[in-house]
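Q: Please design a sequence for this.
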């Protein structure tokens, strides 16, 4: 494959996944990662895509800051940050494929259940009450660990946030603020370790216009999609992400 064709495919994937990510507030990195990894390898793909996710999240937070639920965000961040350094260590010392397989199977079960029951009770009506609610809340540190390991902890965190944040715009901007904080930590850690090479920074810069195009169109679509359809899109993306994780683990 020529370099021009390779770059064209990367730009197309970045545009499409950030269009989807702008609609829902998650999924851009986890959907793009398998494709972009095939084209340029994991070492370059992860930081390039996380930098695109950082930009996407920053734009969404600025545009929709009035919708942020600061109490929900504070709880999210407090639990997730516990798991983040664990994931960074896991990425360096544990085998990648078994972790991906477990995550993929878990995500698949959750997404199928969500598609069958797309209207969970909201938090104030019992969505996070009882032992099930406590179990769902306990997933937050796991989501932080997955994000530290793969830069894409969304599948785990969506399980919690889909119940805690029932409004689509509240869900989107609060998740984006979380990605903004977590990805800032990751990018800082990579910068300190020398992982942000000239190749990574150059490709991230070339991808940025395609991310912005996806962001603009996705934002337009977000405010026009019905709440019920939004929920189905959310869990459909989660199911696709599950299949990609399982496929990647079994290759």
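A: Design:
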């Amino acid at each position: 494959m020529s370099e021009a064709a390779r770059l064209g495919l990367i730009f197309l994937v970045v545009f499409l996944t950030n269009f989807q990510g702008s609609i829902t507030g998650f999924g851009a990195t986890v959907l793009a990662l398998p494709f972009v990894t095939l084209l340029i390898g994991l070492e370059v793909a992860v930081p390039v895509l996380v930098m695109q996710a950082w930009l996407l999240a920053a734009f969404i937070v600025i545009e929709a800051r009035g919708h942020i639920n600061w109490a929900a965000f504070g709880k999210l961040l407090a639990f997730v940050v516990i798991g983040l350094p664990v994931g960074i260590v896991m990425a360096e010392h544990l085998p990648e494929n078994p972790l991906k397989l477990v995550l993929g199977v878990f995500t698949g079960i959750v997404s199928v259940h969500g598609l069958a029951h797309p209207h969970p009770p909201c938090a104030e009506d019992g969505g996070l009450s009882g032992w099930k609610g406590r179990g769902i809340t306990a997933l937050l540190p796991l989501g932080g660990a997955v994000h530290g390991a793969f830069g894409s902890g969304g599948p785990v965190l969506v399980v919690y946030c889909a119940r805690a944040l029932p409004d689509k715009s509240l869900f989107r901007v609060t998740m984006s603020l979380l990605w903004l904080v977590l990805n800032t930590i990751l990018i800082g850690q990579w910068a300190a370790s020398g992982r942000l090479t000239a190749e990574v920074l150059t490709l991230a810069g070339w991808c940025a216009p395609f991310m912005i195009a996806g962001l603009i169109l996705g934002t337009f679509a977000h405010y026009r999609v019905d709440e019920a359809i939004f929920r189905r899109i959310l869990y459909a993306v989660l199911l696709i992400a599950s299949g990609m994780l399982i496929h990647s683990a079994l290759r």
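Q: Thanks. Anything notable?
A: Confidence is low (pLDDT under 50) at residues 121-127. The CA atoms of residues 102 and 246 lie 8 Å apart.
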